[in-house]
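Re: that backbone. Tokens:
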């Protein structure tokens, strides 16, 4: 039976009513898996490549979603001057080549049939006519581009820029930094023939036409979020020809067959296909099953970022005032917004390194995870200690880089375990603030949080999220959702899955469900009213500090 015929027969069995039944979904998932096995005509794998700010990883998955091989390399960030932050594109590609090659050799028995790339946003690489990289990439936190951002503001205004691009005006995006390069390094700018972000840079280095998906293009502050094309209006203000950019296309489409000379060098099988991927947050959301309204994916890493999907681009004043971006999801027809904090797991690491060296030694002696020891005896009840977790400035909705972390409510009776719990409460209060603000601004009710990343290993923390936000929180079977999401896009691109929805049904599995405790939620709601007043009350003081 052909794949096309199989697709039609399967669609006849899936109905919205039946999909809502847990038993039917389990049967459907089992049947899809059986069909994949029954009709597969070759042994193969799908590779998800994740290029981040400080390192890159590659994971090969079976068509059934089983991780087969993993590789990681770190390249780090360069700080040549105060306020500057760069990554070396040549070092990045060296590391990317190594992780691809390492994984490709590990799965030679299940050769990589297709790959897709998910990458950091904003940072770009100037490329010369001969393919040479001309300049290091400026990351989002690099402060170059402030004057150029102000020029854009004077020319179009914040609201017009937001309505075109879906991005609140900020110097971190690619376009102001391209303008900085034109103004401050004309010898580099004039030699450049392409400005490539890291997804399209990877395809270029793989010997293919530079191609960027809609979601990553949306992180440049130069892409028309509604028309799905480079904005002539934005490039006109910048004084830059939009032809320097890669070709924008939807996620999950074939870029091309990787040339034999490249596959041989990297150890990939001949005929391997590259497929458009996406910006790291929406791809992470895909890998976590966040492809419908009402479901948000909570990335609990060093920092916390919640990705929320919706069906319409909410480009209103409330979204702009709260600094929420709006850009394309990797699922066709959907959009995403990001609510984020600059603290998360890094706040626990700060505590570990400064106040818990005894526990570090104890964990080493026991062969245990130090964070398990740190969190072992935290109290169940709210602490009454309030931590404003702006240790790196505030994320959304205030987006105040000059804000500072504060701790209030301490007494001589405050214990060490209460202090640890207060740190996690502070991060979670900030999460609730973001969710409530985003729901009001976008008009989208978030019913469920899918938790991914290192912090999702803590059941105590996930229960706290459920109690404080009054939402269901679930943990997932696969934690590397970015690479899984990229692999899903690769599989959809080559027809191994009929749709993203089918792939998520097959590959994304929930492990634990955490329901809100109503009594605890009421207690935290009383305390949240106090927490909500801390930042506006102390804002001027923290700025003076």
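Recovered sequence:
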């Amino acid at each position: 039976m052909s794949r096309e015929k199989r697709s039609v027969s399967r669609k006849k069995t899936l109905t919205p009513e039946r999909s809502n039944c847990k038993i039917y979904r389990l049967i459907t998932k089992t049947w899809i898996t059986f069909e994949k096995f029954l009709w597969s005509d070759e042994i193969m794998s799908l590779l998800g490549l994740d290029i981040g700010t400080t390192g890159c990883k590659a994971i090969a998955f079976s068509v059934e979603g089983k991780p087969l091989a993993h590789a990681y390399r770190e390249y780090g960030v360069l700080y040549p001057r105060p306020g500057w932050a760069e990554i070396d594109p040549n070092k990045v590609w060296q590391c990317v080549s190594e992780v691809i090659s390492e994984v490709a050799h590990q799965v030679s028995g299940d050769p990589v049939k297709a790959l897709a790339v998910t990458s950091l946003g904003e940072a770009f690489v100037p490329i010369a006519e001969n393919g040479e990289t001309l300049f290091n990439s400026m990351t989002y936190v690099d402060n170059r581009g402030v004057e150029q951002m102000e020029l854009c503001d004077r020319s179009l205004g914040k609201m017009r820029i937001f309505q075109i691009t879906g991005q609140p005006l900020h110097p971190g995006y690619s376009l102001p930094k391209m303008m900085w390069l034109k103004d401050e390094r004309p010898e580099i700018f004039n030699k450049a023939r392409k400005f490539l972000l890291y997804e399209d840079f990877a395809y270029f280095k793989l010997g293919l036409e530079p191609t960027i998906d809609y979601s990553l293009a949306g992180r440049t502050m130069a892409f028309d979020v509604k028309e799905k094309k480079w904005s002539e209006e934005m490039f006109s203000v910048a004084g830059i020809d939009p032809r320097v950019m890669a070709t924008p296309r939807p996620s999950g489409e074939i870029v091309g067959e990787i040339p034999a000379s490249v596959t041989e060098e990297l150890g990939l099988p001949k005929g391997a296909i590259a497929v458009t991927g996406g910006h790291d947050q929406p791809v992470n959301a895909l890998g976590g099953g966040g492809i419908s309204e009402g479901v948000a994916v909570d990335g609990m890493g060093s920092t916390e970022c919640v990705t929320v999907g919706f069906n319409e681009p909410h480009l209103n004043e409330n979204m702009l005032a709260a600094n929420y971006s709006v850009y394309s999801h990797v699922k066709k027809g959907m959009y995403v917004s990001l609510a984020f904090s600059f603290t998360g797991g890094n706040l626990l690491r700060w505590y570990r390194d400064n106040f818990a060296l005894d526990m570090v030694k104890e964990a080493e002696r026991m062969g245990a995870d130090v964070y398990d020891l740190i969190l072992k005896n935290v109290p169940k009840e709210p602490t009454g200690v309030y931590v404003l977790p702006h240790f790196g400035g505030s994320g959304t909705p205030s987006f105040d880089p000059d804000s500072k972390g504060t701790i209030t409510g301490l007494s001589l009776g405050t214990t060490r375990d209460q202090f640890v719990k207060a740190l996690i409460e502070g991060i979670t209060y900030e999460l609730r603030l973001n969710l409530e603000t985003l729901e009001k601004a976008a008009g989208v009710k978030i019913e469920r949080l899918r938790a991914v990343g290192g912090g999702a290993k803590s059941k105590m923390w996930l229960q706290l999220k459920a109690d404080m936000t009054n939402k269901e929180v679930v943990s997932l079977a696969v934690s590397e959702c970015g690479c899984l999401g990229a692999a899903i896009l690769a599989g959809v691109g080559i027809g191994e899955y009929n749709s993203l929805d089918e792939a998520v049904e097959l590959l994304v599995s929930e492990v634990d469900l955490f329901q809100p405790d109503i009594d605890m939620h009421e207690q935290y709601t009383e305390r949240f009213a106090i927490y909500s007043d801390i930042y506006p009350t102390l804002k001027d003081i923290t700025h003076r500090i």
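The longest helix spans residues 416-442. Confidence is low (pLDDT under 50) at residues 1-21, 36-40.
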